[in-house]
Design goal:
Elements (H helix, E strand, L loop, with lengths): L15 E5 L2 E4 L4 E4 L2 H4 L8 H11 L12 H13 L4 E5 L2 H18 L7 E5 L8 H7 L2 H4 L9 E4 L4 H7 L4 E6 L2 E2 L5 E2 L2 H14 L2 E5 L23 E4 L10 E5 L20 H14 L2 H24 L4 E7 L2 E6 L3 H11 L1 E2 L1 E3 L3 E4 L7 H20 L1
Parallel strand pairs: 3-15, 5-6, 5-7, 7-10, 10-11
Antiparallel strand pairs: 1-2, 2-3, 4-12, 8-9, 11-12, 13-14, 14-17, 16-17
Helix pairs in contact: 2-9, 3-9, 10-12, 11-12
Length: 391
């Protein structure tokens, strides 16, 4: 008999009832260190005071307005994002998946308005993840994403990760854009080297095509920069953002240059809930914290401390861990056992992690995790590894 909740998740038998900062408490009172952050969502941890205050204040005033009207909170958050990034304009969504939908529409509409409607193909890369809508799974092209959901939306060209020759050969008169994550998340914490992102920007400029960056998981301070592409010193034409920007409140956005967004005029896109006063009030409060240079400097310092501790953990448990990779507080532990087994052992030791492809366990802690909490997390991961090795 089917459950009341559609059974599309393999859920762990954990029932959390409260969260505070980096900690979660289950119904028995047991406390867990959360190194998953709801998959890079809870950027300031659980029940962050700044976000609770912003949400409560706004909730007592106004929750929802249709986008038929001007929304001051939306305008303020859009201005903050424009001020802090390459973008000239922002459209707010509820999720990364919705951001992907608009990014694809925006790129194709750009070329349509330029009198080149044949330019619809978007180049993507193996291991990518851009969401679970029809466009997003077509962008991925992976069998596990598209099987049973045909016909698959056309217009996406899938390329091997890191194959420059294949990329050059794929660009033709129908190419509209390149879509890529500066750091793959679901694909196994695979950072795109700075020189490769710089090369992609040059290629797009030379060929006259758009560069779309998916910073849904790696953005909003996760990498130690406000957005991960900043390390390479380049900017995209269009960027997808979600997860961390709402700190736990459903919020996403598409950021774009004026040129790239030129085709998106009245009536070309919309959203019932996107940019609502509640979400934007929370997003602005979060951005006011995360965009501060001192905060990002602390993120990088914590990331360095965590990386050092994890290297020691790998050395101490060569039968469980192979290596550490990632950028900032977006870290992957390469495991020898199945990642699911390591995650399960972590549950038993009171630490939350997230599996990914390529035998990777993801560590995505709140950006304000303390050194003491990092040390405690390493101790719990050490116990998990010991338990696996003695099983």
């Amino acid at each position: 008999m089917i459950s009341p909740v559609l059974p599309t998740y393999a859920r762990a038998p954990l029932h959390f009832v409260e969260g505070k900062g980096t900690w979660l408490t289950d119904e028995t009172g047991r406390r867990f260190l959360d190194l998953g952050s709801g998959i890079a969502v809870n950027a300031l941890g659980h029940a962050a005071p700044e976000l609770v205050a912003a949400l409560t204040e706004q909730a007592n005033k106004l929750w929802h307005l249709s986008n038929l009207y001007e929304i001051p909170q939306q305008e303020a958050l859009a201005q903050k994002l424009v001020d802090e990034t390459f973008a000239d304009t922002v459209f707010f969504t509820n999720s990364g998946t919705e951001a992907c939908e608009l990014a694809v529409k925006m790129a194709r509409k750009y070329w349509y308005e330029k009198g080149k409607p044949e330019k619809v193909e978007i180049l993507t890369f193996a291991g990518c993840f851009h969401g679970r809508s029809s466009a997003a799974i077509a962008a991925s092209g992976a069998v596990k994403m598209v099987k049973g959901f045909g016909p698959v939306l056309p217009g996406f060209v899938h390329l091997p990760w890191g194959d420059h020759d294949a990329l050059d050969a794929a660009i033709n008169d129908n190419t509209a854009a390149i879509l890529i994550e500066p750091i793959q998340g679901e694909g196994g914490i695979r950072p795109l080297p700075d020189q490769c992102l710089q090369g992609l920007r040059r290629l797009c400029d030379e060929k006259g095509i758009l560069l779309i960056l998916d910073e849904v998981q790696c953005g909003v301070g996760r990498s130690g920069k406000l957005f991960a592409h900043e390390y390479a010193g380049v900017t995209p034409d269009i960027m997808m953002v979600a997860k961390g920007i709402g700190g736990g409140f459903p919020l996403g956005a598409v950021l774009a240059t004026e040129e790239a967004a030129a085709g998106m005029v009245v009536g070309t896109h919309g959203s019932t809930y996107g940019g609502n006063p509640l979400g934007c009030a929370v997003g602005l409060a979060l951005m006011n914290v995360v965009s501060e240079p001192a905060f990002l400097e602390t993120v990088r310092a914590r990331a360095g401390f965590l990386r050092q501790k994890l290297e020691g953990l790998v050395a101490a448990h060569p039968d469980t861990f192979e290596s550490v990779r990632g950028v900032g507080l977006m870290i992957g532990l390469k495991t020898k056992p199945a990642p699911a087994d390591v995650v399960k052992a972590g549950y038993d030791a009171g630490v939350i992690t997230v599996p990914a492809a390529d035998n990777i366990v993801r560590l995505l802690p709140p950006l304000n995790i303390t050194e003491e909490e990092i040390a405690e997390a390493i101790d719990r991961l050490d116990k998990a590894a010991t338990a696996l090795e003695s099983a």
